[in-house]
Structures are given as C-alpha cells and as structure tokens.
Amino acid sequence: MSIEPGQLHAIVVNNHINPTFGKVGVGSIRPTAVQAWVKGLQVQGLAPRTIGTIYTIFASIMRGAVRDELIRKTPCVDIRLPYVSKTTIRLLSTDQVAALYRAMLPEYRALVLVGAGSGLRQGEAFGLARDRVDFVEGMITVDQQVVVIKSRPMLGTPKSPASVREVPMPAFVAAALKEHIALYDPPDVVFRTALRHNLIRRDYFNANIWKPAVKAAGLMSDTTFHDLRHTFASTALASGVPISEVSRWLGHESITTTVDLYGHLVPEASSRAREALDKAFGSALSVP
Questions:
Q1: 190 with 120: CB under 8 angstroms?
Q2: With contact defined as beta carbons under 8 Å apart, do 122 and 232 qualify?
Q3: How many angstroms separate the CA atoms of 269 and 182, rounded?
C-alpha cells in the first residue's frame, strides 16, 4: 500500500491532532491547551523532531482558520517545543564501511553501500524501487520511503518536496545493487525482509540486523545508519564537490541546513578564499 502526499498530512491529523482537538470548537482552543497538548506528545515518547513536525502541521491549520476568519488569532503563540539537540556528525572510514558491509546479512548488505555511496536516508533506502535505479545513467531516483503507520510499514512520500531527487550512483554501489537484484530478483522494492518479504520496519532492522552487524564489525555500539549519510556527504565535500550539489543530493530543503551540518568539513575553504581574493586585488593594491 502506498501513501499519497495528502494522506500523510491526514494521518498526522487523525493520529495526533484530532484525539485532542477534534471535538473542540476551533474558537475555544487557547495557547495553554496547545502547550498542554505538546507536553502530552512528549509524555507519549515522541521524538522532539517528530513533535516539531506535528506542531508545524497544527499551526498551519490554525493559520488557515485565521485566513478563513473562523478565528481572530491563532492559539499557537509562545508555545515551547522540546529542545532538538544538535546533530552529532560521526564519520566512518572506508575500512569501517567495508567491515560493516561484510558483517551484514547478505540480503541487507547492499543497503550499507547505498547509504555510504549515495547518501539515502534509511527510510528512502528501504523504499528504493527497482525501476528507480538507472544503471545506464548511473543515477538513483528518490521519490518514496518506507514509513510505519499503526505498526505497519508502507510506502509514502519523502519527508519534503526537496527530498524528491536524483542522486549519483557510484560504480561500487551499482555493482552491489546488480548483485543483490540478481540474487533475490525483487519485483518492485529492492530490499525486503528475508523470511516474509515484507517492507522493512526501521525498529526491526535496527534491533535485529543493524546492531549485530555493527558489533561484529567492531564499530561503536551507537553507530547509526544515518552515519553512512554523513560519511557520504563528508567524502563528497572532501573531494571538492560544491556544497550546493551535495545539498541537492542529500535532499535538504535549504543549503543552510547543509552548511550548518557539514560546512566545517569543506577542505581549505578559508585558504582558497584568501588566495582568490589576493589574486583579484593584490596586484591592484601592490600587496606582495
């Protein structure tokens, strides 16, 4: 089953907004009630980023109510959201990626190289379809991901419009995918569970597939699939790929996000800037 873009919005409304506000008149919602609702989402154990996404959708609904003159002002005023900690950038060496690749169960092994070699998010890698892999052009099209709705994995749209993209597929990634497809002959989605051939659930994969492989490869126990994405970005930047291109390949909505995460990894940016400026102005100003 797939999820259309509008359905994802509806799922958030049905699962997280309607249980609290569905039977409440929009004009009677006060900021204190919104703050209590946000606190309740925390108590449920939702991640700060997830709560932020849910709140953003709720706030947009309230802004729409203001525009339609259903209410005079939005109740989403001075709402304190849970703190989102700064992302820790952990980079894996090529030897570590290779060790993890070898330690992974065969039916999931190519996922490691898709993450490290093309920078896909975990859900995007799980949702990669066979017809989105172009071996002739060496490109991967990212236009769907696996999401879990009421404990069921299903195909949905990527997290934002910018996440729909094409990314380069290095030869070693192409070789791994060709081998995987030849062995398992997937009709649609490339990676599925080994026994029942279901879409892969993140929690199942991380607990039963990923963590044992991380341990066997001798990596730090808290190494995540997202570290492969960080490794992809840092490797591309270290090779001189413009950060604007890396941002597009990562599917970031804004290059600011890419700069905030990886700007410090751009090699010799300061010295290159000095050399360029000295070359442009040095002779005119007689600066040696």
A1: no
A2: no
A3: 43
Q: C-alpha angle with apex 103: 146 to 143, nearest 5 degrees?
A: 20
Terminal alpha carbon distance of the chain: 67
CATH (residue range 94-250): 1.10.443.10
CB 207 within 8 A of CB 67: no
pLDDT in tens, 55-66: 989 999 999 999
Q: Structural domain boundaries of the chain?
A: 5-67, 94-250
Question: In the β-sheet with 139-142, what is the strand arrangement from edge to edge?
Answer: 133-134, 139-142, 165-168
Please enumerate, as own/partner, the contacts of 192-199 that have beta carbons within 8 Å and a separation of 24 or more: 194/105, 194/107, 194/108, 198/153, 199/126, 199/127, 199/146, 199/153, 199/154, 199/155
Euclidean distance between CA atoms 56 and 225, whole angstroms: 26
Specify whether the CB–CB gap between 81 and 55 falls below 8 A.
yes
48-91 pLDDT per residue, tens = 878 988 998 999 999 999 999 999 999 999 999 998 776 678 89
The pLDDT of 241-247, averaged and rounded, is 92
**Range 146-153 contact pairs with CB under 8 angstroms and sequence separation of 24 or more:** 146/199, 146/200, 146/201, 146/202, 147/3, 147/8, 147/123, 148/201, 148/202, 148/203, 149/3, 149/11, 150/15, 153/126, 153/198, 153/199, 153/200, 153/201
pLDDT at 244 over 80: yes
pTM of the model: 0.73
